[in-house]
Amino acid sequence: MNWSERSRQAVWHPCTQMKQHEQLPPRAIVSAEGPWLVDDAGHRILDAVSSWWVNLFGHGFAPIREAITDQLGRVDHIMLAGLTHPPVVELSERLGQLTGLGHAFYASDGASATEISLKMSAHSWRNRGQAGKHRFIGLEGGYHGETAGALSVTDIPLFREAYAPLLRLSATLPSPDPRRAAPGVSAEQHLQHCIDALAAHLAEHAQEIAAIILEPLVQGAAGMAMHDPAYLVAVRRLCDQHQVHWIADEIAVGFGRTGTLFAHQQAIGPDGVAVKPDFICLSKGLTGGVMPLSAVLTTDAVYQAFWDDRTVHGFLHSHSYTGNPLACRAALAVLDTFAARDAQGRDVLARNREAAAHFHALTEPLRRHPRVKAHRHIGMVWAWDIDTTEPTFAQRYHRAALDAGLLLRPIGHTLYVMPPYVLSPDDQRFLADGLLSVLDAVLAEVDALPAHTAASGAIAATAPMA
Ligand SMILES: *Cc1c(COP(=O)(O)O)cnc(C)c1O
What we know:
Elements: H1 3-10, E1 29-33, E2 36-39, E3 44-47, H2 50-53, H3 62-72, H4 86-99, E4 102-107, H5 110-127, E5 135-139, H6 148-152, H7 157-160, E6 171-173, H8 187-205, E7 209-214, E8 218-219, E9 225-226, H9 230-242, E10 245-249, E11 279-282, E12 294-298, H10 300-306, H11 325-339, H12 348-362, H13 364-367, E13 372-378, E14 381-386, H14 393-403, E15 406-407, E16 414-417, H15 425-447
Parallel strand pairs: 3-15, 5-6, 5-7, 7-10, 10-11
Antiparallel strand pairs: 1-2, 2-3, 4-12, 8-9, 11-12, 13-14, 14-16
Helix pairs in contact: 3-11, 4-11, 5-10, 8-9, 12-15, 14-15
Bound molecules: pyridoxal-5'-phosphate.
The site of pyridoxal-5'-phosphate has 14 residues, from helix 5.
């Protein structure tokens, strides 16, 4: 048996109906360098989704590798209750300087960061004598992870439905994604409608609401839905007005993905200064996609709500691998990389702006494609909505892209690219050409299908391939 077959016997793969692996077995990747993966048959595959949105600087990035190796010779892992270590201290100080929020609390994955922020918010209100404030608001299409608490504020029916009885009810308010505007309603009107809906909900329910959680600027799992930063300015104002916390889930959009180090920094308040959330959740790019690590940052006010002689007023949450030193060193190498400038005086964000302009020009034929209904772009994220009703589009595209040497996983009918920040001009050209030729090939394939046979066909119909 090869690696792929052995994997199907032994490994239960995430976000996967395992039966579908009969048609489309998992690819076994045996090496990776920069944005390129190499499978066990020697095929090279360009990783155009940053290995599920985590990888920033390509695979095998030397500064991260060296940092981890160095740390391995010092301290591999120690518990963080009652002990501390230099990497976690330094990382916390630097995240605090970069965000203006401190008191970094660590876990190992994004969903756990969501859980921590929800628990911390509700518990802080309780400690302040407002135990009734324990409900949460999420947005339509919002995604915050798949543990039970995180799913409670997630609005992706496919991920939620089977677990609905396990979940706590949260309010789901309209998303400022302009594509959700009612017919005849402009983007500006839709934005105002969403702000009004939040204002009305808070006016009625603020006394029972701990926090609103949202993904600033890009709702990733909803299909790279993008919105105006003005919405975030309104969220900040309304949360202040009604004494509700704002949790910014920057797990996917943090670390330069939208063009600024953190996405919420693009929302400039009336005082001319970027708005600040009460909590920021970070993961994914935090370690450049090399080590599992997440962090929740919060305000002095929240921290002070736990500062007490009574143990039960403390935040007693914990994970065994909290603040893992190797992961913290990887994150410090990422922060060093963002802080550095090249010989031309450009930092990562400046180089990304140039690379994005170049790639944007290369994708012009895709934007003009007759079957592309809507396209959007911010920073290092591109998305195109494809005009097809074929439910197997995403899986067919994924398979055809792999055969063309590209790792791409459309979400429903949305084709998107979230590349690592290290594509060469040749890589960009290869990706842009492949996006288009695979699209034409897959559309020809699905257009030739007899209507509605696919749902009962070999590939099950529903999975959106998030
Ligand atoms: C990926 C993601 C999560 C969950 O992170 P995991 O590490 O997969 O648990 C939460 N929120 C957003 C916005 C994400 O993209």
